Structures are given as structure tokens and as C-alpha cells.
Amino acid sequence: MIEVVIRNRCTGCQKCLEVCPAQVFELGVDGLSSIARQQDCQSCYMCELYCTSDALYVSPNCEQPEGIDEQTAEASGTLGYYRRYSGWDEWAGQHPNRHWVMGSVFQRAKVLLGPTKNELEKH
Hints:
Number of helices: 6
Domain 4Fe-4S ferredoxin-type: 1-30
Helix content: 25-40%
Protein name: NAD-dependent dihydropyrimidine dehydrogenase PreA subunit
Structural class: alpha+beta
InterPro entries: 4Fe4S_Fe-S-bd (IPR017896), 4Fe4S_Fe_S_CS (IPR017900), Fe-S_Ferredoxin (IPR050572)
CATH topology: Alpha-Beta Plaits
Number of domains: 1
Number of strands: 4
Largest sheet: 2 strands, antiparallel
Keywords: 4Fe-4S, Iron, Iron-sulfur, Metal-binding
CATH architecture: 2-Layer Sandwich
CATH class: Alpha Beta
Strand order of the largest sheet: 1-4
GO molecular function: 4 iron, 4 sulfur cluster binding; metal ion binding
Strand content: 5-15%
Shape: globular
Radius of gyration: 14 Å
């Protein structure tokens, strides 16, 4: 489950907002991503894959939040771990990228499950 956005690392690129199939993030008043619907997180790690500044900490516990703060997340030494070992961006060629198939899986799930609560509220 998504735990924190590390504010001093977030560049405001909004990639996490674009790729999150559950629309967990919103743009904060400061122009940075913020977690708006943590309970909707599917622990798919898509946000972490696309965050080139390693500003997100996704916990492997997908059932409930662990309550980790920014300092604990930074001290964990795991920021960007999933992206690195999936072979994305600057890590391409150093580690196998097997996550590429997940995009189509999430799209199919979104079609099968229908619109999210947030999508329905927008219309």
C-alpha cells in the first residue's frame, strides 16, 4: 500500500497521478502529488515504477497502512527498489524488465471492474 510521498524528492511530474489505476493520488496545492485515497491503493507499484525521483514509498503490506513517515521511508534504503530491480529507466539492461505486461493487465481489470468511485463522482 502507498505510504508516503517524499516531499523533498517529488518533482511534481504527476506521473503517479497518470498511471495509478485506482486514482489514489491528487495534485496538492503546492503542485506536488499527495495521497488522497490510500485505502484504494492496490499495491501494484505502478506509481513507484514511473517515479524517476524515487519519491514514493509503497509498502508490501497491501492490507493496511503501516504508518511509515517520510524520514523512516528515506532511512529504509528501499526507495526506488522496485523500479531498479524491474530494469526501468537508468536500470535498463542491468535487471530484467518483466513488469511491462502489467499495464495491459490493469487496463483489463479496470474494464472488468468498471469505473472507480472517484471516476463516478467526476461525472
